[in-house]
Amino acid sequence: MSSLSKSVAELASNNANLTQQCSELTNDINQLLLNVDSKVDSAFSKVNGEIKSTFAQTLYVNADRTVGSDSNDGLSAQAPLNTIKAAVAKLVPGCSARIMLAANNVEHVSTTVVVPDCSVIFNTYTENDWQSIGLKLHFTGAIAFNTSGDNASITLELFGEFQKTILMAGNRLFENLGKAAYSLASDSASFPVVVFHRNTTGQFFPYFVAANYAKFSKIGMFSMSNVTFASHISNSAGEIVYEPMPHIRLDTAPVGGAVLAVFNNVDMHCGQLSNPGVELATGCYLISKVTGLNHVAPPVAATS
Q1: DSSP 8-state code for residue 151
Q2: pLDDT at 295 > cutoff 90
């Protein structure tokens, strides 16, 4: 073999080896990239799961201390939290959460519930082995529900064919420090949500207020369906008797902006009822749609 032919053969062999090495290196790089992609996908999935668990939560609360504990994660009815306060503490601004309240006739006692700038829905849940069914909420603060953001939404969908009561120590059911939407509803006219307020002297206001928009400056919504307000309940000759509050106002004056108010099958047992739109501040607007808003005044005592 000539020297030139030998050099050409060696060059061809070297090229073949180089091509093989390049192919092997390419395979190694592709495998590394696949490993990286897999790790990135796994990390993204984990982060995405963390984001979803933070911003779209369903939490369970059982006031029965033998079942609920604030050391639980609250993510299931089998490991519920014990207090509403602990559930709300898990909320973050921007989240959308659902808080499930055990309707086992064990009273949920709470101070004022302050919801961050987020959307939260309160629902009820029951278990087949519970001996007693019913929802009892007891708020010990001057206000039951308050907000700390400009786009908060608080919805109480207390559904079910059983008694549902909210006992108020203070005289404001809802209050806001910004833009807020509030809703309180039962799905049954036969089993309405009954709101009790027994303090006749009032706190801050000399009357009971369903929603206080005193610091309101934008646009908000307020709706109620199948709700009864009274000072307390009694039983006379086998019939339920609602004792009246002295004075109820559905809202207080917002400072600028507007409020859309919708009421359906709402009974107000009180001596005096101030309807929506009373004494609104200058520049304020209130649009209300009322279906079955009933002022149930106490009977007038007969005079001799």
Answers
A1: S
A2: no
